[in-house]
Amino acid sequence: MTKAISAWAACAAMALSFAATPALADVFTKEELIKVNKEAAGGGKGTLMGEYAFTRDKALKDQAIKEISWLTLKPGDSIGYHKHTTNEDTYIIISGRGTFKDKDGKDIAVKAGDVTIVRKNESHGLANTGTEPLVFVDVIAEQ
Questions:
Q1: Three-state DSSP class for 4?
Q2: Which of 82, 110, 118, 134 is the most exposed place for a label (fewest CB within 10 A)?
Q3: Strands 134-141, 88-95: parallel, antiparallel or unpaired by DSSP?
Q4: What is this structure's pTM?
Q5: Are strands 88-95 and 115-118 parallel, antiparallel or unpaired?
Q6: DSSP of 9-74
Q7: Backbone angles phi, psi at 118, to 5 degrees
Q8: Is the pLDDT of residue 80 over 80?
Q9: For residue 37, what are the contacts with CB-CB under 8 A and spacing of at least 6?
């Protein structure tokens, strides 16, 4: 019985120590996001509306994720075809429809649930070709 109680006590102490350990994750609430709109982003047209957890100038050197944001393009607006020379960029389409121009310059229709990735030294662009706002999460990472 004593061994069982000792084992239980050790497990309980371990659980309490985990509970007392501060979380090593960041949370950026919707209310805290940094609102930044960019005109003619990447040489595109219209306004790229953004809500950023943090921007590239705030990321630390050893952090792979350099920028993460909710972005919105109104119908007819676009992000121009541009090259990423030092980082990679991923779009996760949340709602709306658009056309993604890939690294080879090929236009590909995108919709909610689609994920696009451009690697270092590749180019891409995105246009809202639909009738509703094109909303997507943008994650920029660097090795």
A1: helix
A2: 82
A3: antiparallel
A4: 0.82
A5: antiparallel
A6: HHHHHHHHHHHHSPP------GGGPEEEEEETGGG-SSEEEEEEEE-GGGS-TT-SEEEEEEEEE-
A7: -120, 130
A8: yes
A9: 47, 48, 49, 50
Among residues 93, 143, 83, the alpha carbon closest in space to that of 118 is found at 83
- At 96, give phi and psi (nearest 5°): 90, -175
Higher pLDDT, 135 or 14: 135
Q: What distance in Å separates the CA atoms of residue 54 and residue 32, rounded to the nearest whole number?
A: 10
In this prediction, residue 5 has a pLDDT band, given cuts at 50, 70 and 90, of very low
The token pair at 94 is 């949340």
- Nearest-angstrom CA–CA distance, 45 and 79: 7
